[in-house]
Amino acid sequence: MKNRKGLLLISITTIITFLLWFFAGRAQGLVPLERVRHIVAGLALNCFFLNFLLSTRNKTLEKWFNGLDKLYVHHKYIAISAIALLFVHALLGDMLKTSEAVTIKTATGGLAMFLLVVLVGLTLFAKKLPYEKWKSTHKFMIIPYGFGLFHAYISSHIPLLTFSALGIWVGLTGLAGILLAVYSIFFHEKSQLNKKGTVSQVKRLSPNTLEWEITLEEPFQFSKGQFIFIKVFQPGIEDGAHPFSISGGDGNKILLTTKVSGDFTKQLHDSLVPESKVLIEGPYGLMDFSQGKKKQLWIAGGIGITPFMAYLRENQPDQKITLYYSFNGSESGIYKDWLSNYQEKNKQFSVHFVDTTSMPRLSFEGYTLEEDTSIFLCGPEKMTKSFVNYFQKNYKDTDITYEAFKLR
Length: 408
Ligand SMILES: Cc1cc2nc3c(=O)[nH]c(=O)nc-3n(C[C@H](O)[C@H](O)[C@H](O)COP(=O)(O)OP(=O)(O)OC[C@H]3O[C@@H](n4cnc5c(N)ncnc54)[C@H](O)[C@@H]3O)c2cc1C
Fold this sequence. Notes:
single chain; 408 residues; alpha/beta; Four Helix Bundle (Hemerythrin (Met), subunit A); Elongation Factor Tu (Ef-tu), domain 3; Rossmann fold; 6-stranded antiparallel beta barrel; 5-stranded parallel beta sheet; 12 helices; 21% strand; elongated; binds flavin-adenine dinucleotide
C-alpha cells in the first residue's frame, strides 16, 4: 500500500501557508496583486522549510514518502517550485514598482534570489559534477534561505514580528528551517554515521565486482533488503559516505557487493584491504521480503541482485519466489552459480537468468502475473522504472516495492 502521508505533509503545510498569508493580506487591506506577491513569497519560504526537513533522512519521513529515493524526487520538485515562486514574486514586485531604489529591503531579496538561482541551478543542471561536490553545494543553501527570511521580516507589508497566527507560523517554520539546515550541515553525520566496523574479508568476484565483509562492533539490526551509507577509512579511498544494499550477513557481520561505477567503487575494488575501519549509517530502505505476500516475483538487474541475496543467504523461504536475474555477460552475473545451487535445494524458489549479451532483453509482455503476488524490483533506474510502469498499468493495485540505485 502506497503511503500518502508525505504528500499530506506537503499539502497541509502549503494550505496553512496559503490561508494564513491570504487572510492576513486581506485584513491588512493590501491590493490583490500585492496580496498575491506576499502569498507567493510565503509559499516559497514554506518550500525551503520542507526541503530542509526532507534532507534530514528521517526514517519516519522515509516511510511517509515510500523510500529515500522517492523522498529525494519530491525534494527536487519542491526546490524547483521554490525557484519558480520566487521568480513570480520578483516579477510581481516589478509590476508593482516596489523595487525602484536599491534599499536594504530590495538588496537582501535580490541577493537571496541570486544565490538561490546559482545553487539550485547547480544542483539541477550540473549532472556531470562529481556526486560529492554536487552534494556539498546543498550546504550553502542556508545562506540564501537566511537572506530570504530576513528579507521577509524587513520588507513584508504584513507585520510578521507579532503574536498573530501568521507571525507564529512564519516564526516557527523559519526557525525550524534554520535549525534543520544547521543539523544537516554540522550534526547529521556525527549523530547518524556512527556504527563502527572493520573490514574482515575482501573477495574480488569479477574484474569489476567486489564482495566485502564487515564485522561490526555492536550488532546491527536490519531487514534483509535494506541499504546503508558507509564511509571507509583507508588512505587512497575517498572518504565520503556512499549507499550500498546489504548483500548478506546477520547483523554481527554484513556483506556488501559493489560494482565499479566511478572513483570510490574503483578505489574499493583496486585497493580495499582487511582491517580497514568503517562507519555505517542506516539501515534505510523499504524492501522487506518478509512483509510480501506468499507469492513473490523478484526482478533484479545487474548489481541490483544485492538486496535479494541478503534475504536468500539468511532464509529458507516459505513464500513461492520467482526471480528474474538480468545481467550483461557472465562477469556481471556474479551470483548465477550460487542461485542455481540454491534453486536445486529449495522447491519454493525458481530463477530465470537473462544474459543480455546472448539473449533478448528481459520483457514481461505476455507474462501472466498470478493473483496475490508481491513484486520486488531492484536494478538500474531506467529498467526499474519501465517495469514498475508496465506492472502498474497492466495490473491495477499491484503490490510493488522497488529500489533504483539512485538518490539524486
Ligand atoms: C539505495 C542504493 C543502494 C545501492 N546499492 C548498491 C549495491 O549494492 N552495489 C553497488 O555496487 N552499488 C550500489 N548502489 C550504487 C552506489 O551507491 C554507487 O555506484 C556509488 O556510490 C558510486 O560511487 P562512485 O564514486 O564509485 O561513482 P560516481 O561516479 O561518483 O557516482 C556514480 C553515481 O552513483 C551515485 N552516488 C555516488 N556517490 C553517492 C553518494 N555518496 N550518495 C548517493 N549516491 C551516490 C550517483 O547517482 C552518481 O551519479 C546503490 C545506490 C543506492 C542509492
